[in-house]
Specification:
9 helices; alpha/beta; about 290 residues; 4-stranded mixed β-sheet; Rossmann fold; 9-stranded mixed β-sheet
């Protein structure tokens, strides 16, 4: 896979933890459409990660139609050759919102990696478009992504598997279904070996919007941040693969709808902050 090119983030990047409500309280998907600042946005749905693409596309087509999308198109990329098809590239380029469904994120990266289609997604984001993804479609957004690790005991050296992602955002690791599948130990193991990465654990029916230097939480669920930048000790460098990891002074935050975090300063923004320096970032989410 080619090394990802870090874009100047001019668009909107939204990561959803999975199992977002599509039937009644559709607040997350409504927010995705509003981020396009278009009255009737054209939405392209990528179901590459899914083993049941027809069903998944139809479920999103129905909800986006109901929420006021002008058109919902099926960007059907199932094989490597599809990711180089000029017709598929043109579809990506013609959308206001590109939405990446859940499934197996290794299918996403193995099919899109180094392709013209991935280049088109990055360009779409650079030029102001909306990229949103749920579950696997969220986990793939970062430069480095988690693709495996036992949820019940990943605090063992080498237990968490990582690979190159889509490269839309750097210095974070995104994990999904985070609370429901008990994945705290996965991000703690990542932090022990890579303290510079901020762990973003997305609960189901929870989402974040990444700003230039902020993470803004929205939706009814929880977002858990795992900050390992201040760890005071770990035994990870002395271990062989599979041995138990000790890590001290990991900082965690539980975010709910409306909470905002500053990534470079590694701190939650208070109401006072949001009334001044954070006001612009907060306003852009509405």
């Amino acid at each position: 896979m080619n090394m990802p090119i870090q874009p100047v983030r001019k668009g909107k990047l939204i990561a959803i933890g999975g199992a977002e409500d599509k039937a009644s309280a559709t607040s997350i998907l409504e927010r995705v459409l509003k981020c396009s600042h278009t009255s009737e946005p054209r939405v392209g749905v990528i179901t590459t990660a899914s083993s049941i693409p027809d069903e998944v596309f139809e479920s999103y087509r129905e909800v986006f139609d109901r929420l006021g999308a002008g058109e919902v198109v099926d960007i059907r990329i199932r094989e490597r050759k599809d990711a180089g098809d000029p017709a598929k590239i043109e579809m990506i380029e013609g959308c206001d919102v590109v939405f990446i469904s859940g499934g197996d994120q290794m299918r996403l990266t193995s099919i899109f990696g180094g392709s013209d289609a991935l280049g088109a997604i990055r360009k779409h984001y650079q030029e102001g478009g909306v990229i949103a993804g749920t579950s696997a479609g969220a986990a793939c957004q970062s430069t480095t992504m988690v693709y495996g690790g036992n949820a019940t005991d990943s605090l063992r050296k080498g237990a968490v598997k990582m690979s190159a992602g889509f490269g839309l955002i750097d210095k974070v690791i995104i994990d999904t279904h985070f609370l429901e599948r008990g994945r705290f130990s996965r991000l703690m193991e990542v932090g022990a070996t890579n303290p510079e990465y901020l762990g973003v654990g997305l609960g189901e029916d929870a989402a974040v919007l990444f700003g230039e230097d902020t993470i803004h939480a929205f939706g009814p669920g929880h977002v858990i941040l795992v900050d390992s930048s201040r760890i005071t000790g770990s035994n990870v460098f002395d271990l062989s693969d599979g041995e138990a990891v000790s890590v001290h002074n990991v900082l965690m935050h539980a975010m709910i709808d409306g909470d905002t975090y500053n990534m470079s300063q590694r701190r939650m923004l208070s109401a006072k902050d949001l009334g001044t320096e954070g006001l612009e970032q907060t306003n852009e989410h509405t």
